[in-house]
Amino acid sequence: MNKTADKFGSYSKDDVIFLLKDLSGYSLEGSIEQREKNIQSGQHYSETLPIEYQPPEKYLSLFWETLDVYKRKTALSTGAVSEQIWKQKGKNTVLVSLARAGTPVGILIKRYLSEVYDVSLPHYSISIIRDRGIDENAIKHILNSHPGCEIQFVDGWTGKGAISIELTKACRQFQETYGVILDDTLAVLADPGYCTTLYGTREDFLIPSACLNSTVSGLVSRTVLNKSLIGPEDFHGAKYYSELEEADVSNQYLSAVAEEFPAIKQEAAELAKGIMDNPGEASFKGMEEIQRIQEEFNIESINFVKPGVGETTRVLLRRLPWKILMKDPESPYVGHIVMLARERNVEVIHYPDMSYTCCGLIKKTGEKS
């Protein structure tokens, strides 16, 4: 089985171990326009990579301002979800974050539990891909390394819930194939789509790590599943963008949030208790809104509708955006989105009739703006 290179990504191995095949030597990137055309013509998005967007200085300044404003809120959501994981699974937990948006969140959860409960839980980051499933080789590696462990899957946030659905499907398939039951409950900082019962908040707020690409995620690319490069015994793949080291803020981001843990731990425990006492169901209630938006804007595929602050940011960073819907264009959570939309000449529409803070719509290739 092809393991990850000894040095993969800019995180310490004490924080996370990536179970990914190193594809750094391969050219997988294409222009946003060409990649979008290929995806809409049937190529799966996991077979290639977008060119990593390098933001201008004014956008980076906005990132640091955003981090300063929301580091406490991010820490509180981290603490709340960490407390729930600890109460439910305890020392037997192995954190398994879904690369790459889940990776910094998994590290923050690991650091919170170390700070508050003086434990060092194992943390791995693995690949899950919509319509392709989870990396079963990585799961088997974890189970072999930690017999009798309880895996806790971790991601950053929910949008429509596509990854939550994919995870449930993958866990069911893993049980059918190997006879091993995995808990498909996904732990996230923010669950505006009501896609899980294990969350820090259901507010669609700005998690600062959503603002950037690899430079806030350990310099690791999106994950890749391309059969010409990934064999049946391999982990899914990814690239390590070592050439971007000068722009990397991954560890500063973690430190800024983790510094808030001592101040918020009591409030986080109370918040967690409130959620556990009344978690609400995973109703996927956001899906009704998404379907309404799809019909209203005559959008061919629901995959072209990306709700929530995190997903809207991703549309602007690495897809071909058509329009951006905003519940409140004056919201403090959307300043970076307004800036990106202006830079990419994308129309922003005031759209108050939705529960999400914003929603990104992807352009159908061949259409004019």
Automatic annotation (TrEMBL):
Highest taxon of the source? Bacteria
Residue ranges constituting the Cysteine protease StiP N-terminal domain according to the UniProt record? 9-257
InterPro entries tied to this protein? PELOTA_dom, StiP-like, StiP_N
* Signal peptide span: none
Which stretches make up the PELOTA RNA-binding domain? 285-364
Q: Which Pfam families match?
A: PELOTA_1 (PF15608), StiP (PF11202)
Q: What is this protein called?
A: Putative ATP/GTP-binding protein
Q: Which organism is it from?
A: Cytobacillus firmus
Q: What is the lineage of its organism?
A: Bacteria, Bacillati, Bacillota, Bacilli, Bacillales
